[in-house]
Protein 1
Amino acid sequence: MTEQNPLQKFPMEPEDIDRLVAEFYKRIRAHPMLGPIFARAIAPEDGPQWRAHEAKIAAFWRNAIGMDASYDGNPMQIHRANRDIHPGMFSTWLDLFHTTAADVLSPEKAAAISALADRIGQSLRYGVTMRDQERGAPPVLR
Ligand code: HEM
């Protein structure tokens, strides 16, 4: 086990994140609703663009947990800008994340990162809901 940053929010190893992220996006690619959204934004087939996306997402999680600060991005802006993403999709994304975490991590680690995902997901969902309301369009509830 590597020495952990004392500011880290809960126990987690970089290898745990890598395993979770690889399996989660494998399932995302195969998902009937979410797969096509990612295929458009990242790449239609598995390959180098997906590895780059997964590396970025792993950095995002290490940053969110307080393991390191190698992620420098703006997920709120990215999700608001992607017009394929609607508020009603977040529960599906989060369910898939919870199931994957439970399959690849210890119960404690799965619970901790799932709770963090829920909090971030709530905030992103709110941002996307506001985007739709700002346009004066009725929210798309799917
Ligand atoms: C409705 C649920 C979601 C969908 C459909 C979705 C979809 C996407 C897509 C397609 C991208 C690629 C970037 C782009 O569109 O240009 C992306 C990036 C990203 N997503 Fe999501 N996402 C969802 C929820 C979440 C949640 C809940 C989190 C975090 C807990 C998250 C974290 C990220 C991050 C960190 C990136 C990279 C942002 C960057 O480029 O710096 N996403 N997402």
Protein 2
Amino acid sequence: MILLYNPPSSGQRKPILPCSLLAIGALLEGRHDYEIIDGNLLGLPSLPGDTIELLSRQIHRTGADILAVTVMPGPQLQDAVPLCAALKRRHPGLKVIWGGYFPSQHWATALGAEYVDYVLRGHSERAMVSLCDALAAGEIRPEIQGVCWRDEAGVPQDGGMPKLPKPAELPDWPHHKVDVAAYLRPTFLGSRTIGHHSSYGCPFFCGFCAVVNMVNGAWVPDEADRVAATVRMLVEQHGANAIEFYDNNFFVSEKRVRRFCEQIKDLGIAWWGEGRIDTMMKFSDDSWQLMADSGLKMVFLGAESGSDETLARMNKGGKQSAAQTLEMAAKMRRYGIVPEYSFVLGNPPDPQADVLNTMAFVRKVKEVNPDTEVILYMYTPVPLDGTLFEDAKNSGFAFPETLDGWVSEDWQNFAQRRSTGMPWLSYSVEQQLQDFERVLNAYHPTSTLTHLTPWRRRILRMASAWRYKTQMHRWPLELRALHKVLRYRRPETSGF
Ligand code: B12
């Protein structure tokens, strides 16, 4: 018996469908017994001891011999470390497997902990089946592409990345293995929003993005008709009225998007996805109209920076420019689709100038389209060979070498891209950015918070107008208090 465990990810009032484990489960179905356990649904106060008790009982009850955990950096990692350590102590025969974004990149660090037996890198549903087959046959160190393990001397060995599976060739997700109703969340899109994932990878090589390491520039989609059929099933069988696509890049193929829109137009749902500005600028007006008619409400787009030079350093340049970002904001306004622009600030080698430049650019974006959602991230290195990461290393940056290091408080902040301890960032730059963000979030509050009624928005705007207009961002203590009273949450603290 295999227990697939999704550690809780804080910040979500209602949890998000554990797509990673559904993708893994789809291939285990009919071949190995498994259960999906979502830490977000355990309903316990976030006392790790309780979750450990619960999972421990589950291991006894089911006779599970494999615990497979999906791990993203941040809260999931923080939960997974003490949990796996404790469960391995209590059940020494249990094999602990880690997969997902964190171990894919930091596989050796994960295997440095004696309570992690295997790390599966990348999109590893097929490697997982092979590993489970091998373990069932009594093999301890099977050589499987994508499976990392420790040799006799305890040294972590890299199994490389597995071949990227084609979603169109994979079986449907086993939605029956989870309580779908528990994942229908009220969002700005609709009262019963649910997630889906319709492609793997992204054909670009942005220098700050963790996806590049996972797929090396590949993008493999599921077919539009099958995606639409899944959406229809979620709507008709489970009562969903809005869909969030978690694809790294939903909008790579205009043809696929058009076909999908045509197929779901009659459903009257709202939907959301992530795309690239330069790619979507090439979509025809007709396609934009079709997307709007099919219920597309907002697109998450990596605007990244207001400087073409920085865009080039990020490996976005030549393809995407700041002028295009403004043009896109104006275009989306015409179709009533909200651009959700994410920016990566504080980039080496001159983080100060970078922050100031992007702050000024954000103001321009808001002039062109005041509805634009703005998400500000600090540049967080991913282990990717290339200019940005090299620059960060040269400024004294290094990843922790142990899992305990990763779950320390400083690194938790880092993992959530909110760190205040980047060696290349001075305190004053960070402070300026935080102050700006506070004022911006008051003057232009996010539209994604459903509890922010129009009059609450008006109060925020009135209180912040003088600061926004005069650019006196410093020490916005009154806005901080107001945000607290109004339970304001920045979109990026709960986002992807
Ligand atoms: C949905 C999502 C979330 C959800 C939670 C999902 C969950 N598990 O509960 C929420 C919104 C909570 C979330 C939060 C965060 N997220 Co997130 N999230 C995603 C997103 C958009 C989709 C993940 C997904 O479901 N994919 C679909 C499945 C099918 O693919 P997959 O997850 O990659 O799984 C495959 C493989 O990874 C592997 N695999 C995964 N798990 C396992 C487990 C086992 C045992 C095995 C064998 C294999 C395996 O096999 C799977 C099938 O191929 C990704 C981006 C993306 N498109 O992948 C970002 C992403 C994973 N998130 C990311 C980040 C940084 C975060 C945050 C830390 C950001 C923040 N602002 O704080 C927070 C965590 C903090 C918090 N508040 O909890 C980054 C990770 C970057 C990195 N350096 O590693 C990503 C890649 C976004 C990005 N492009 O930067 N996230």
